[in-house]
Amino acid sequence: MCFILILVFFLLQLALGHGVRRLHVSAALFVKAKVAMSRYEPTTCVNYQKLRSNLDIVRKRLDRPLTLSEKIVYGHLDDPSGQEIVRGRTYLRLRPDRVAMQDATAQMAMLQFISSGLPRVAVPSTIHCDHLIEAQVGGTQDLQRAKEVNQEVYNFLATSAAKYGVGFWKPGSGIIHQIILENYAYPGVMVIGTDSHTPNGGGLGGICIGVGGADAVDVMAGIPWELKCPNVIGVKLTGSLSGWTSPKDVILKVAGILTVKGGTGAIVEYHGPGVDSISCTGMGTICNMGAEIGATTSVFPYNHRMKTYLEKTGRGEIATLSEENKDILVPDPGCHYDQLIEINLSELKPHINGPFTPDLAHPVAEIGAVAEKSGWPLEVKVGLIGSCTNSSYEDMGRAASLAKQALDHGLKCKAQFTVTPGSEQIRATIERDGYAKILRDVGGVVLANACGPCIGQWDRRDVKKGEKNTIVTSFNRNFTARNDANPATHAFVTSPEIVTALAIAGTLKFNPETDYLTAPNGEKFKLVPPTGDELPTRDFDPGQDTYQQPPPDSSSVHVDVNPQSNRLQLLEPFEKWDGRDLEDMQVLIKVKGKCTTDHISAAGPWLKFRGHLDNISNNLLIGAVNIENDAVNKVRNQLTGEYGGVPDIARYYKKNGIQWVVVGDENYGEGSSREHAALEPRHLGGRVIIVKSFARIHGRVDSCVCFCMYLECHMVALEQGLLPLTFADPHDYDKIRPDDKISIIGLKKFAPGKPLKAVLKHSDGSQDTIQLNHTFNETQIEWFQAGSALNRMKELQ
């Protein structure tokens, strides 16, 4: 703490006297004491000394060069002397520097924190209101409507934040990741955020990891946070970006190489001489979309681009301190990567990925032909730029440079065109500097500073549900129905520049590098490659003040949760495990193929129920495909023989005392850090999730904390634990039939590294026994037995 260091300064001065040398030593300490982590937390310092001290211990133990990822992660170890460190195997106990929560996930996180009984958060924490604002008409109107519709939730978040010492960013302030980059991220910081795109902060040299609300609660409660020791994938960049190629093309290319699960269990670490050709916000873009390859997070080494960005965003002291500690903010020469990818930026071409998955990569020059051959709609109905991935000043400037060329030739966008500023600071600055006007003049609608269509908060009315159509976005994710709830929408992700060009041309067949546009007067012209300032020449315009500082004394603050509310619901602690095996569970659904968190717990209109577990449970697995009939949200009730929706059948089983299990395929739970994807089955009577493999955040098979394990290990819910298990032999997936009864045996001897057995009782009287793996360690088993980590914490108090 800064005030502690300042106190130490004065005590040292009194003890040592005022000699020149002694004064110099304590003065240096005083100078360092003044470097706060952010302007909003003046008494909490950037602590490179602790990072360096931990690294000194780890270096002596490992005796080898370290990657940047290792330096930051191991520098935050709770016990650097005793912690076992083996990449890809051991679990690390870490002490993150701060917690960030978006408003949808913050509801459940704060409800859990309230249930912990603790008076105040243990680390700097913030809440950001960005997920509950639906795009309808335009920024001002949509924001006002959101404030009215979500008043109860915003009031709960504001008062609970004030009560427990959490900073609160009001609706309209911007998207969580842009706010973090502008105010809180810095080289070497470790941030956990309740959103899967938290890795955006890696663009400023931090290890920023997306987690569920339960992990946030652990850290806010002062409990060491567990992370499976990540492997490190190195991406060496050479050459330099130019022309139509943008930072977005780097991650689009990497996604095509690694696929949606190629980064699982690893941190992606960019390095090499090409890094210096990328802006700080461009590096943020690349790290942000690293979530789509399943990576734990992504990070760039400290360089002059970060220094400039820190200075431009009012953090010059942190920039100076980072320069002084640069040796711990870059990888060691000769460090080892578990996998190495090399990309020559000078040869990289503009890319566009999709549809329906972010790893289906195509050069822009080829997408028209591929779309024509595949039967994808060629007409671009809507172009959407912005989102947390691509809404920087540079992004908006480069898009505006293309819009200006079209306007100069008398053209406007053929497609609808929307613009989402990343923050109030970006909105105010692009308004001041004329970018917003240019984008409006070409046909754009400037939306609120919020997530909007990127997460499905879009009241789209230009096409009917089920109508095939194409949209192009600068977003990060394009799963089926994600943006507009229409499963027939073919969504492609690309850079803001390419989105703008395609929106002007109105077709996927347009290649801006080679093709001509036709002006109203018949003149043909080519778009000149986009240009834009990395940062504004003048300082950023901060816009409206949207931050609420928590009061020093919150004893008079009252947090209300109306028992009759349909938006908020207080949680009850889990019951302890009863010590028995789980026997004769019914299969609720055997999922066929891809099952993302959007399939398990859809966003969009369901976001309003994120703070009410019972109500949001009505979307449980409604997007998953049932292998029995290839239908969505249609499963057989094994007690009555009738078909019904997944949540309805789950509730029926629960009411009749029938425990149930979900069976899944590969990469189950791919997508957002949505703990509700595990809370809901728990609430509706589910006990086990058995899959071939879990995606990064959903399963502890890889890096973060398993979403399913949130239930057994962390969450405060209503019943007993939910077990996330994987087939020891993936072919055993085929042995399970939709009408099976499944028993999990061996729980009395539940131990780390020891598989469990499942007995499959088939309706024809036969049965199979299969082996299931888990990744619980001893501490997590204690959490399971207690009902939750918070329950266990209370037991130890």
TrEMBL record:
Pfam family, one: Aconitase
GO molecular function: 4 iron, 4 sulfur cluster binding; aconitate hydratase activity; metal ion binding
Keyword Iron: yes
Major subcellular site: mitochondrion
Signal peptide positions on this chain: 1-17
Domain of life of the native organism: Eukaryota
Binding note for cofactor: Binds 1 [4Fe-4S] cluster per subunit.
Domain Aconitase A/isopropylmalate dehydratase small subunit swivel: 585-699
Annotated segments matching region Disordered: 521-557
InterPro entries registered for this protein in UniProt: Acnase/IPM_dHydase_lsu_aba_1/3 (IPR015931), Acoase/IPM_deHydtase_lsu_aba (IPR001030), Aconitase/3IPM_dehydase_swvl (IPR015928), Aconitase/IPM_isomerase (IPR050926), Aconitase_4Fe-4S_BS (IPR018136), Aconitase_4Fe-4S_dom (IPR036008), Aconitase_dom2 (IPR015932), Aconitase_mito-like (IPR006248)
Residues of the Aconitase/3-isopropylmalate dehydratase large subunit alpha/beta/alpha domain: 70-506
Keyword tags: 4Fe-4S, Iron, Iron-sulfur, Lyase, Metal-binding, Mitochondrion, Signal, Transit peptide, Tricarboxylic acid cycle
Subcellular location: Mitochondrion
Pathway note: Carbohydrate metabolism; tricarboxylic acid cycle; isocitrate from oxaloacetate: step 2/2
EC number: 4.2.1.3
Cofactor: [4Fe-4S] cluster
Enzymatic reactions: citrate = D-threo-isocitrate
GO CC annotation, single: mitochondrion
GO BP terms: tricarboxylic acid cycle
Family: Belongs to the aconitase/IPM isomerase family.
Function: Catalyzes the isomerization of citrate to isocitrate via cis-aconitate.
Protein name, as recorded: Aconitate hydratase, mitochondrial
Species classification: Eukaryota, Metazoa, Chordata, Craniata, Vertebrata
Primary gene name: ACO2
